Predict the structure of Glycosyltransferase family 2 protein.
Amino acid sequence: THPVEGRLEGQLREQLNGAESHTAAPALSVVVPIYNEVESLPRLIEAIASTLQASGMDYEIVCVDDGSKDGSTALLKQLAQQRTDLRAVLLRRNYGQTAAMAAGFNHARGAVIVTLDGDLQNDPADIPMLVAKLNEGYDLVSGWRKHRQDAALTRLLPSKIANALIGSVTGVKLHDYGCSLKAYRTEVVEDMNLYGELHRFLPALAYIEGARITEVPVRHHARQFGKSKYGLGRTVRVVMDLFTIAFMKKFLTRPMHVFGLWGLVLMGTSTLVGLYLGFLKFVRGQDIGDRPLLILAVVLFLAGVQLFCFGLLAELLMRTYHESQGRPIYRVREVAGPGSSPPLRQP
Ligand code: UDP
Ligand code: MG
């Protein structure tokens, strides 16, 4: 269905299920992915609630438990049953942060969505400021951790490089793509097919769809409890996703322009190498049998390019697969708390 129709349908359904959900759709949904954050949870919920109550905003909190193993699941369910402002979406297993966020988007009922991390590294006190900025006429406001409290070598440096790369490839220059604290108009995220690590590319994906995007500095704190779920491996995955996005943006409509061009370049290069070797053999009278390195370099180059192209094709196939099959990237075990009627949007 059309998104607006879907929303209305959802509201109607809620009215019919009145006993189960006593709240109308709030203005703001705060979406938080949770994976093993049991120590931070009570403080986090309290901090979000007190900020938003103080600012007089009509809000709901949607926490998505991404298959935690440390008791976050039970605690979240209990909190959601006690509070009127918290809905807990419990996933069947760990699907990753992107899937958890997608689940949160689909269960959110507000016209505006704010996302943040569950480990208190983002400061809930920044939420009203982000929403105010959004209301100045943007579709997406991204937080910028100007004074980021993470390890310099393993986190800050790779992310600096990644931000520069993403910026130059997508044309959306943000200082801090990786910051989870962001505000969106709901229509910006509701039709996105997210998978892998794509949540961090939301500004770029939204921009391709014509969204107005800006960035504001936000606070950032060192992790107090638990550990980060990520290491350097994520940077590699992010760079791979980057290539896919660049490819989608520039070449999706004319794949032949890419592969054809590379084919020509390869044919040209190998012809030149062949001519050079022919020159050595026939003009200089040298034996080219003693030039294995040259051949090896050529073969490796060819193989590398082919692998790269196959990687892109595989990514495209995967995307097509995700989008055509409609295979969900997460599955919900249970929804607890107010408004636990069916979500507005399916995975
Ligand atoms: N997270 C998740 N599923 C995962 C990994 C992480 O929902 O598989 C959540 C995690 O609980 C946190 C957010 O995603 O709320 C960001 O994770 P983390 O703080 O470990 O990342 P970092 O801040 O180190 O980049
Ligand atoms: Mg963190």
Observations:
- The beta strands are 28-34, 59-65, 86-91, 112-115, 140-145, 182-185, 213-218, 332-336.
